[in-house]
């Protein structure tokens, strides 16, 4: 999912467990996925059958690149058509 979806920046955070141990959650820089959508939005599209569903292998969710590329191409074509219609072409 991290390759498909945008991920927000997450600053490092320190906390103390109930047993008194100090823990640190490491920082993560923001990243941009190939779709430009968040993971939440992608799962929403999957639920509405508007985005290819993942293949489950164990606990992992995996996507076929051919399906993702086809989806991107179909939506690029629609966007190009809409832009041309707005410009009067």
Run of helices and strands: EEEEHEEH
Number of contiguous helices: 2
Biggest beta-sheet profile:
2 strands, parallel
Cα-based radius of gyration, to the nearest Å: 19 Å
- Structural category: alpha+beta
Provide the low-confidence segments as ranges.
none
How far apart lie the N and C ends? 37 Å
Write down how many β-strands occur, each being a DSSP E stretch of 2 or more residues: 6
Mean pLDDT: 83
Looking at the structure, what is the overall shape?
Answer: elongated
Spatial arrangement of strands, main beta sheet: 1-4
Portion of residues in beta strands equals 15-25%
Query: In which range does the helix fraction lie?
Result: 25-40%
């Amino acid at each position: 999912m991290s390759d498909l979806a945008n991920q927000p920046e997450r600053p490092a955070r320190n906390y103390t467990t109930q047993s008194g141990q100090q823990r640190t959650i490491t920082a993560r820089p923001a990243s941009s996925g190939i779709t430009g959508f968040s993971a939440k939005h992608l799962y929403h599209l999957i639920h509405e059958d508007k985005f290819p569903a993942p293949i489950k292998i164990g606990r992992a969710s995996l996507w076929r690149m051919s399906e993702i590329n086809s989806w991107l191409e179909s939506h690029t074509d629609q966007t190009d058509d809409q832009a041309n219609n707005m410009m009067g072409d």
